[in-house]
Design goal:
Two copies of one chain form a homodimer.
Chain A lengths: L7 H7 L4 H8 L7 H14 L5 H8 L2 E8 L5 H16 L3 E6 L4 H13 L2 E6 L7 H6 L3 E4 L9 E5 L1 H13 L6 E5 L5 H16 L9 E3 L4 H12 L7 E4 L2 H13 L6 E5 L13 E4 L2 H16 L8 E4 L2 E3 L9
Parallel strand pairs in A: 1-2, 1-3, 3-4, 4-5, 5-11, 6-7, 6-8, 8-9, 9-10
Antiparallel strand pairs in A: 10-12
Helix pairs in contact in A: 1-2, 1-3, 2-3, 5-12, 8-9, 10-11
Chain A binds a DNA duplex through helix 2 and helix 4.
DNA sequence: CTGTTAGCGCTTTCAA
DNA sequence: TTGAAAGCGCTAACAG
């Protein structure tokens, strides 16, 4: 019993006018007489007409949809970012297509290509790739999040990775630590490199020689994380503090530290996570504010979509150390 | 410098054939001579032709897109579900549009209506509403998750809420508890009602009179949760165990229990969460397996999209108690 | 097996 | 201010 769709033609017919005039009314074109406008509006109401977004997009060459591309939808950080973007999009009647790259360049490319094919109106991208030349052709506005494109002038909403990492490590140093390890993953990614640089900055400023053994790259799997932590603690001079460069690393390494009963080691996580304050000791973090990042990125994108065209800008979301205990342990 | 889009016409021209034949080749229609096929395929490759999904959808009356509607994208449970759906969709070249209802019926309606307008090929919905009559008209396959539609014959992927809750409470009872509280939110929602029923089942079987004071509904805000917990513990006969009916409640109530240093109270959460095993004591949970739910729902939807048409079925994802400590505390 | 014609529902010329 | 006609890119009919 699915009644056939109401088309613009039906509205025009009912309002005794042409499709184009009806179209004008629907799109808020001013050059329509008040009288005709009223007739069309009534017909729209009576027939419960809603424009077909697909047909409209085809004609306009632009879909009322934005694409959001992240590492992994299930990642708590990105889930919050997406949640905020979707919230803002819905208010504007814009749909959100999501896609994840699984942190693989070729996937990023496929996914972005697909979105371009669909003619999304705009993109918010946590890019894993270094090469964005293929994005240039698409010519829809792009806002990068979390990581900036070095080869492309575009908006970006980031945190100050280097400064934040430095701040975090300085926090640990201020409690007397001289042996601070750096836990990271995917050091090839810009974000990770910047945080590592911030770690080095802090050590250098404090006149501490960086110990290569303290710089640990942990792999995606849980068991690798355990091995890496165990190796770290088995060193002749094990670190007295650990700086975890992201939430993933924290979630992977903390279970091992707890299992080994080495919660005496100071710990600071770049990126907050649920229940961090309930662990023993509660975990000191640098707060990221994924919602804020999502909101800033969406605002930027929507302002461009509504025609504004300021020069590309890099917005930095504020960061702050949230001391909870684990980062304030003495050596 | 955006070169104009390559159209099917261009391919047909290059292959010295008609658009329709080219279309046949692209859509894998068998009734094309090998020779022509080869020419078209070569032209496609040379011109780097990719079909316009919008035009195709318009003509076919169906978009290669599925809609996923959940309470809140940022909710860890739904984030994992969505992640898994997106993973499966991408393999099939299907896009995923997400939308959240914020647990409000009118939003659910607006959102589903919008997706129907877009002519999504299928829907996966965690419905908050009781009335799905408006879904019937859309006539695209729908798979419900987490909650079932009572007024509509459709596929659903659920957990056994009632049986699971009963199992959880029985677990607590088996350690000697007689005073078990039930923490829930939004008791109006079917899922919540079923879990509460399971809680009652377990008590009844054990010959325990349910105490209305033990059934607590905590509101979305954190401070309300704290008040509710404090009131619960201030009772003349406070409970010795708490059954938390969902992850949200657990995440909201555990901070208060820790703050009050009342981790001597047994605690069991319906729904796992990150770091649960690192708290002191580690939190016993009933594992939900959001990924599995996402996968089962997506499989079901895709099988329907590929033409299979079995009678609607309700699939129940398995549940299991994961004992970690908090649920095994004696009274 | 192939090509022509028409049309999905809408908006944009361009002329009245 | 209005409308007719063309066409966005594709595919379903229906001839050939």
């Amino acid at each position: 019993m699915t009644r056939p769709r109401v088309r613009l033609r039906d509205v025009a017919l009912a309002a005794h006018t042409s499709t184009k005039t009806a179209s004008r009314v629907i799109n808020g074109d001013h050059r329509v007489s008040a009288e005709t406008r009223a007739r069309v509006e009534q017909a729209v109401a009576e027939l419960d007409y809603r424009p077909d977004p697909l047909a409209r997009s085809l004609r306009r060459g632009l879909d009322e949809t934005i694409g959001v591309v992240v590492d992994e939808v299930g990642d708590p950080f990105f889930a919050s970012v997406i949640g905020e973007i979707e919230r803002m999009a819905l208010d504007r009647g814009v749909s959100v297509i999501i896609a994840s790259t699984r942190r693989r360049e070729e996937r990023e490319r496929i996914v972005l290509d697909g979105l371009a094919q669909r003619r999304v109106a705009g993109l918010i991208v946590a890019s894993i790739s270094e090469d964005h030349s293929y994005l240039r052709a698409s010519s829809c506005p792009v806002v990068f999040i979390d990581r900036k494109a070095e080869d492309l002038e575009a908006d970006a909403v980031l945190v100050d990775d280097r400064g934040g990492a430095r701040m975090g490590v300085e926090h640990l140093l201020s409690y007397g630590h001289r042996s601070v390890a750096h836990l990271g993953d995917r050091l090839g990614v810009a974000t990770a490199r910047h945080r590592l640089a911030g770690y080095r900055d802090a050590l250098e400023d404090a006149g501490i020689q960086a110990n290569p053994d303290y710089i640990v790259e942990i792999e995606p799997s849980q068991s690798d994380a355990a091995q890496a932590i165990e190796a770290l603690l088995a060193l002749d001079h094990p670190p007295t503090a650990i700086f975890s460069a992201n939430t993933r690393c924290s979630l992977r390494s903390l279970p091992t530290l707890h299992r080994l009963k080495r919660t005496d080691i100071a710990f600071l996580s770049f990126g907050d996570f649920a229940m961090a304050e309930l662990l023993m000791p509660p975990v000191t973090v640098i707060d990221h504010s994924p919602e804020l990042i999502g909101r800033l990125a969406a605002e930027r994108l929507f302002s461009r979509l509504s025609g504004e065209n300021p020069p590309p800008e890099t917005i930095r979301a504020p960061l702050q150390v949230v001391p909870r205990g684990s980062g304030e342990l003495a050596p």
